[in-house]
TrEMBL record, chains A, B, C:
It is a multi-pass membrane protein. The keyword ATP-binding does not apply. The chain crosses the membrane at residues 60-76, 88-107, 113-135, 147-165, 171-192. Belongs to the UPF0126 family. It comes from the Bacteria. Its main location: membrane. Keywords: Cell membrane, Membrane, Transmembrane, Transmembrane helix. This is Trimeric intracellular cation channel family protein. It is found in: Cell membrane. InterPro entries: Gly_transporter. The keyword Transmembrane applies. The lineage of its organism: Bacteria, Bacillati, Actinomycetota, Actinomycetes, Micrococcales. Residues 4-77, 89-163 form the Glycine transporter domain. It comes from Myceligenerans crystallogenes.
Amino acid sequence: MALVFDLLGVFFFALSGSLLAARRGFDIVGSLLLGSLTGLGGGVVRDIVLGVTPTAFDDPVYLLPPLAAVVVVYFLHGPVRRFRRPILVFDAAGLGLFCTTGAVTALEHGMNPVAAALLGLTTGVGGGLLRDVVANRDPQLFDPGDLYALPAMLGAALITAFWAVGWRGVWLEAAVAALVFALRILSLRFHWHAPHAARTSHPARTEPAPPR
Amino acid sequence: MALVFDLLGVFFFALSGSLLAARRGFDIVGSLLLGSLTGLGGGVVRDIVLGVTPTAFDDPVYLLPPLAAVVVVYFLHGPVRRFRRPILVFDAAGLGLFCTTGAVTALEHGMNPVAAALLGLTTGVGGGLLRDVVANRDPQLFDPGDLYALPAMLGAALITAFWAVGWRGVWLEAAVAALVFALRILSLRFHWHAPHAARTSHPARTEPAPPR
Amino acid sequence: MALVFDLLGVFFFALSGSLLAARRGFDIVGSLLLGSLTGLGGGVVRDIVLGVTPTAFDDPVYLLPPLAAVVVVYFLHGPVRRFRRPILVFDAAGLGLFCTTGAVTALEHGMNPVAAALLGLTTGVGGGLLRDVVANRDPQLFDPGDLYALPAMLGAALITAFWAVGWRGVWLEAAVAALVFALRILSLRFHWHAPHAARTSHPARTEPAPPR
């Protein structure tokens, strides 16, 4: 059951990578590589920090969701493109699932609470960050228009805190994932956003990327 | 003998990194760093996933090819620039060598066949991907105009399949590397290419990188 | 005492990451993530290559400097922006500290001298490189207008050479860090720079980034 949720999370993230590949005019191989990186990258980084063989390399079943995402984007790009909202909803679901499972995995490997929360965050946002870095664009993660990392941070911190007082189990994880999901969706709906990096900064003074 | 081939592969890849540094106006230190990353990056990522000390750090002889590439590009940039075709040929040779040696290394470390094929691909295309990511440009790997990852995938998969039925050895590896090399060269010559990420996508509808 | 210096280095580097986040209009979460990546990324990569749990994940105190940098940039962005020179001085201090502590850490883990020097360089320049890669801009490291990697290379090589002849200790490290710092500052002051990647290259012939 946990595996099914995990694979669904990989699929939703991979979908966002394959869609980006389609928008940028990459070929189907780029779609597969970018989708895999988005869906599996966060967990691979977490496992490398933990010093264990990355799950994505250990168990081939994790490669099926990116393959499915490639097929869906190839045949249904038009319809999928129009459904921007469902994609954001799926991505929010992946975020909620990954930040909780990532924190739990880290705790199970004996990491301290702060590191476990960090690795939960890494698992949740790492894939999307790698997607944007490889696709050569500004990370969506840093977009000041809504909340993305903050719900994931909160979720990973909650999991860690509950673990410290002995509350564990799949239902608790599901509840925290649902909370992260809800906060992400609400931030999109109501344009919640975090303060800018600098209090005094305003658009006219921010500096564009240097001319290239 | 295997080491000589390996070092040649590193040299060809490093050459492409140092040439890019020259084209972008970086200094000789950038040439060394970008060349090293291109020549050694794929193998380092593979070894980190395998959980072993990266070969490039374990054996200093691996730093000689990037140094040689820096010297060649510094003194012969003009001539080298004009020989775009030889560079592509050398790069194809590196691709063929690395995807096979990468898969074999993974199999020798007891990875499952799918993971071994994946790590062969990673070894083959990882360095070039890191080069483009660090040099801040769209990955050549995703260029829909020819085949790059696909021959490497095929080569790594063949090595893994042959290994499963007990066929191993340096001649087999050389044959697979030659096949990957040939497919890459033929794809350049005849403009073979993979389908786009989306069936319905056509140039006018692909989205450029957002203004920055 | 070594820890205090280390944390100061993290703080100076994190400051440059958070300032970049402010200039690019990212939010306060982006400021924290980019600052952490800059301050801690080089050491994390070094520890992953060494095969040990990254210090930044092992000891939560390493997260305080990035937090402090976020606060400083949030409240004092205007003044901080005007003090471009102090920032460069702080960054040079971080560079000197990190390339020496990085090389020492690698030697203590039994790496060969060449690998230790490489890992010292990685620790010194890795965080800034990750900052620029994630923020989607050309790496400052490759800027041909001054010296950045070269002093760090020299410092890491000196540490390794001294270690080989049995000279160790915090005062020696401090002296080497001071030398790296001085060379970096002098290169800024007198516009020292390394040769271009290609001898025959001149500005009119360098190729801009491709249009996107």
